[in-house]
Design goal:
Layout: H1 3-7, E1 10-11, E2 14-15, H2 18-38, H3 42-61, H4 64-104, H5 110-113, H6 119-124, H7 128-142, E3 164-165, E4 169-170, H8 171-179
Antiparallel strand pairs: 1-2, 3-4
Helix pairs in contact: 4-7
């Protein structure tokens, strides 16, 4: 409300007195201030709205399908890495089982025995331990030189081949004397 508006009002033939206009203007000012107090954070809200609109525009400019594809790619890479790790663990465990089985079968060298095993079939086997044992036995039959002899040698017998023949000569001396009749040993 403006002061000029109130000055144009007349009570009878006379304009409104200045005190009344001042009182009306003061009351109007208090009403305006109380109404403004309710909306004092208007500028802050306006700035927040502008920022939110800018953020929304940024999201609208993004390709949601590309983000979904990217998320799917990362998920696939994660799953592939987990699968590769599990396969590596399984292969390491399998190789350990093979090395232990070759050692238990008294193989001379694991790297020499393994090429003769059908590794793919053994990996896919339901009963790896038994199939591996059977495969090692088959390799032992065909390529026995790859394995150490598991039979214990007979105990050492002192003076074998050195028995005396006919008195004072050992068997070796007697054979030597027969081959060389004119030669004497002493």
């Amino acid at each position: 409300m403006k002061r000029d508006f109130l000055q144009n009002f007349k009570v009878g033939d006379q304009p409104l007195p200045k005190e009344i206009i001042d009182a009306i203007m003061a009351e109007n000012g208090r009403d305006i201030e109380s109404a403004k107090a309710k909306f004092s954070d208007y500028d802050t809200v306006k700035e927040q709205l502008a920022e939110a609109q800018k953020t929304i525009q940024g999201f609208q400019s993004q390709d949601v399908d590309a983000i979904k594809r990217s998320a799917a790619d990362w998920e696939r890479k994660y799953n592939d890495a987990i699968a590769a790790h599990e396969a590596e663990k399984a292969e390491t465990a399998f190789q350990t089982v093979v090395k232990e089985a070759v050692a238990a079968a008294h193989g001379r060298d694991v790297e020499a025995v393994v090429p003769f095993l059908k590794m793919d079939e053994l990996r896919a086997s339901k009963n790896q331990a038994e199939d591996l044992k059977a495969a090692l036995e088959a390799v032992r039959k065909e390529k026995g030189y790859l394995f150490e002899d598991t039979q214990t040698p007979p105990p050492y017998a002192a003076r074998t081949g050195g028995l005396t023949v006919g008195g004072t000569q050992t068997g070796v001396e007697a054979a030597f004397a027969r081959l060389n009749p004119g030669l004497k040993l002493n």
